[in-house]
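Tutorial sheet, problem 5. The two components below are modelled jointly, 296 residues in total.
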Amino acid sequence: MTMTCAPPKANFNAFPINLGVSLGADAIERQVMELQIMFYHSITMVKHYEETLKIVDKAIKEYSEEDWDGYGAQPVDAVACQNAIWFSRLLPMNIPVPEIYIDTDGEITFEWYLAPRKVFSVTARRNKELAYAGLFGVNKTHGTESLYDEVPETILENISRVLAE
Amino acid sequence: MVLASTVNSNESLARYLTQSNHFSTATHSVKPKAFDPPPNLRLSVFRIDNLAIEDVWQMGQEHVINIMPQPRNLYGYADIKADKAQDLNLDIDADNNPPRHASIVGWPEDKSERKLIAQELAANSKLILRS
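Model answer (structure tokens):
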């Protein structure tokens, strides 16, 4: 049996950036990294991260040329890819894997699509912003948050909202 | 038939679906990605009023699929009334190049707003799949 201490609204892979300078802080960081390596061997623990890596890998092969969609799309953006991979590591483990696709401007979008009016998306931008938008019946939302070391609360709330029955 | 130089609000527009992730067969609906505007913010559509369905497919094959740099399928199209775009403060530029072509223009600068508009356009469109 495996036990985990990951909080429900975070992912264990998203351990906060180590701001400590002591030997103790370094030791904790090393231990966390060892645990993270163990977690990478678990399919369920890293499903968002693995799916994102797979999509990004495919995108680099297929969408690295200008006009890959015939409508003038820009090549997939390397920095946006890195930001998308980082974002995927932050997603809580209890959230279903979204559809991940490349935008026409080369950035990466994560989309939870349940129905035409039950949809929420988050785009990992090249400038370390997260652009989000959602339709929930007659209600709607959109906005921008910064990508740092945890998923912004607004985005988590909207993911829960779209997944709610 | 000669089309008016401006698009009537109740005209039907076709956004051709060239990728399998442009639609959902599970919910028989068009997905927002189908309406994501290109970098030049001119979303390509065709005016399809008074056309037989075979002509709609032929137009998509000839003016969309055949000019794509990579081989693509014509899975279907999203049928949307012009006023659904106009209600979102977008305009329709009927450039007629190629014939019946138009572009949905007037997209906001803010990306999150564009994403929301794409979601609304998708939600207000009808999925027509090629049989």
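Marking note: The two ends of chain A are 31 Å apart (CA to CA). Full credit if you identified this.
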